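sorry for the late reply, my laptop died twice this morning and i had to redo everyting from scratch. anyway the thing you sent over, i finally got around to it. pasting the sequence first so we're on the same page, its 311 residues, then the predicted structure underneath. double check i copied it right bc i was rushing
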Amino acid sequence: MALLIVLSVLGLATLAVAADHLVLGCGRLAERLGLEPVVVGVVVIGFGTSAPELVVAGTAGLQGQADLAVGSLVGSNIINLTLILGVGGLVAPLAVRSSVLRREAPLSLAAVTVFAVALLYGLDTPAGIGLVLALAGALALLLRFARAAPRDAVAGETTDYLSTAVRPRLAVEVFRTIAALAATLAGAHVLVTGASELALRGGVPPEVVGFTLVAAGTSLPELVTAIQAQRRGDGDLLVGNLLGSNLVNSLAGGAVIAFTAGTPALAPAVIAAMVGVSGVTWALLARGRRLSRGESLLLLILYVALLPLIA
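ok and here's the structure:
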């Protein structure tokens, strides 16, 4: 049992470090290839921070752990907009000045809702195809929004986040990205193997392990990005990254599970909570285009209150 705990922690740590470097490598490569900073901020970083969720979902699905895979995605979506956003808002009151709330927020909520409907009616192959098509449509809209507002606040904050004292060398960033992706795959495999065996030996349902331990671990890259962004005062990048991550988790992650594992059993109340959290968070942010420390604490309390639903 002790060895399994060590393996799970090792997998979590590897995921956190590797995914952080994967985000930096992908972002800097995208900039070197000429992508606009606002596109990098909204799309590339969102995909980068979601890499652990996608890899874990695929790994668990291929191992027949559909409950763990879905639990980790649903848990990550909830953690992103409660625990991580709440921590970011406690570091400093969070202000959102860009078009994120007007454009990315409704797309993210729609993606989470589509994922929830697919979970309720069955994650079969047709549902997976539908999720892929929805992802393609969402990305097309995000790119259109980004290019229509090249001077959006996210652009400057992305450049600030990816900046270094010296110009990044292409070869170094290619190596960073490939090595980080390999480490992410390895960390995900170790984590899923350890978590699955822990659930089996401890008599804990796999979806509970996925919703708590695995979801928290795969959300570590978002937490790292959130803290770094808040320290720089980059609230738009923080919110855009979390919303983008939930969009990718729901559509890409849902499709991965549909093609590898099929429909798991997950309580409808948990699925409804995922959609509800997305709506509540959007309402809090849209009310004054900011998140106070009191509202951030409320999000943290909401996460704790939702934990009994999965037990």
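The two ends are 21 Å apart (CA to CA).
thats about all i looked at so far, will dig more tmrw
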